[in-house]
Amino acid sequence: MHSVQKISENIYWVGGNDRRLERFENMFPIPNGVCYNSFLILDEKTALMDTVDTAISRLFIENITHVLNGRDLDYLVINHMEPDHCANIEELVKRYPNIKIVGNKKTFQFIGQFYDFDYSMNMLEVKDGETLCLGRHNLKFMTVPMVHWPEVMFTYEETEKILFSADAFGTFGALAGNIFCDETDYDHYYLEEARRYYSNIVGKYGQQVQSALKKLKDYEVNMICSLHGPIWRENLPYILNKYDKWSKYEPEKNGVVLVYASMYGNIENTINVIANKLAQKGVKDMRVYDISKTHPSYIISDIWKYSHVIFGSVTYNMGLYYGMESLLNEIKALNMQNRKVGLVGSGTWSPQSVKIMQEIIGSMKNMDIVGEPFEVTSSMKQEQEEVVDKFVEDFFKSIN
Ligand SMILES: Cc1cc2nc3c(=O)[nH]c(=O)nc-3n(C[C@H](O)[C@H](O)[C@H](O)COP(=O)(O)O)c2cc1C
Ligand SMILES: [Fe+2]
Ligand SMILES: [Fe+2]
C-alpha cells in the first residue's frame, strides 16, 4: 500500500522512513530512525526530485506508481548523488525508459562510479543557473558544491517558490505521519538531531554552507524540502539562522560541555569536581560526557551548540586515550573553531595528555585555551584544590 502526502496542489511527498537502521552511514546511532524524502511534481511534464535508500525501495516504487497513475515519468532530478538517495535510479530507468536524469557534470561522473547500467540515453546535463520548464512549474538549478558532496545542487521551483535543498536543513529522525515542521514539536523532537546531523555530516564545510546561504538570499522561499526530516513552510528564518550560526562556527549558547576519558574514575572525579564548582558559581545547563559511553556524534553536536568545552584525559601509552584522541582529531577535521577550551590531564608515571591536547587544540583556529591546564598524578588530592579553584575561577570569568 502506498503512503504519500500532498505538499501542494500538484506536488507529492513520496518518501518514507527507516526505523530499523542502527547507524546512519554505518556510523551515527539513530535512535529515532531516519527518513528519506522524495517529491513528485505533476505538470505537463512529470518530475521526481531525488530517489531514496534501498531500505524503502518497495514502498517508494508503490508511491510513485500511485501518484503517476499511469503517466510516464519525464524527469528525475538528482540533487545529491549519495547512495541514501540514489538507490533507485536504475530501477526508474528500467520502468520509465524515456526518463531524463537531470544532473550536473559531477552527478553523472558519480552515477558511473557507483552503478553499472547504461544511462547514456537518459542524461540531461545542467549547469548552475539553468532552468527546466515543466509547464506551470519551472525548476532552477543552483550548484552548491560540498553542501555535503561536490555534486550537490539545490533545485528552486519558481512558481510555488519551493526549495529542494538536498541534505541541507535536514535532520535524523523518522517522520511520524507529520511531514511539516509546523505539525511537529520541532524544538523538542528534532532540533538536537538536526544539529547532530549538521555538525557531524556537513560541519566541515561551513564556508560552502555560507556560500549556499548567500546564493539563497536572492530568492523568495516559501517552503524548504530537505532530503531528510520534516518540511519547512512556516518560520523559515528559524532554520536559516541556525544554519548561519552553525556554518560560522558560532556557539548558540553560553555554556560548558565537559568530556572525560577515564579508566579508573580519577580524571572523571576531577571533571565532576570542576562541574560542581562551576555550578556553584552559577553556570547553568552544563553537559558532562564519558567519551567511552556516549557516541562522539552527540558530544560533537553539543560542542557545536555551546561556547565552552573542557577536556579531561588520562595518558595512555605515552599518548591520549584513543576515544579522546579521535574526538579531538574529529572536531579538528570538522573545522571546529571559536570556542574557549579548558584542559585537564593525568598519568601515573609520565603524564603526557595535557601536552598532546594542547598541541591539537593549538593547531585549530580560534580555539582559546582558558584557565591554566593542569595535571593530576593518578588521583586528585585535597592539596590540589587551590589549583582547581584557580582554574575554575579563570574559566568562569571567560564565560561571562
Ligand atoms: C594501558 C595503560 C597505559 C598507560 N600509559 C600511561 C603512560 O604512558 N603514562 C602515564 O603517566 N600513565 C599511564 N597510564 C596510567 C594512567 O594514565 C593513570 O593511572 C591515570 O591517572 C588513571 O586515571 P583514571 O583513574 O581517570 O583512569 C596507563 C594506564 C594504562 C591502563
Ligand atoms: Fe549526503
Ligand atoms: Fe542524505
Describe what you observe in this structure.
The protein is an alpha/beta fold and 400 residues long. The chain folds into 2 domains: 5-247, Ribonuclease Z/Hydroxyacylglutathione hydrolase-like (Metallo-beta-lactamase, Chain A, 4-Layer Sandwich), CATH 3.60.15; 253-399, Rossmann fold (3-Layer(aba) Sandwich), CATH 3.40.50. The model has no long low-confidence stretch (mean pLDDT 97). The protein has helices at 57-68, 83-86, 89-95, 105-114, 186-189, 191-202, 206-216, 236-247, 266-280, 296-305, 322-333, 353-362, 385-399, and strands at residues 5-8, 11-13, 16-18, 23-24, 28-29, 34-36, 39-42, 46-49, 75-77, 100-103, 123-125, 131-133, 138-143, 153-157, 162-164, 223-225, 253-261, 287-290, 306-316, 319-320, 340-347, 368-369, 374-377. A hairpin with a 3-residue loop joins β4 (23-24) and β5 (28-29). The N and C termini lie far apart (57 Å). Bound molecules: flavin mononucleotide and fe (ii) ion (2 copies).
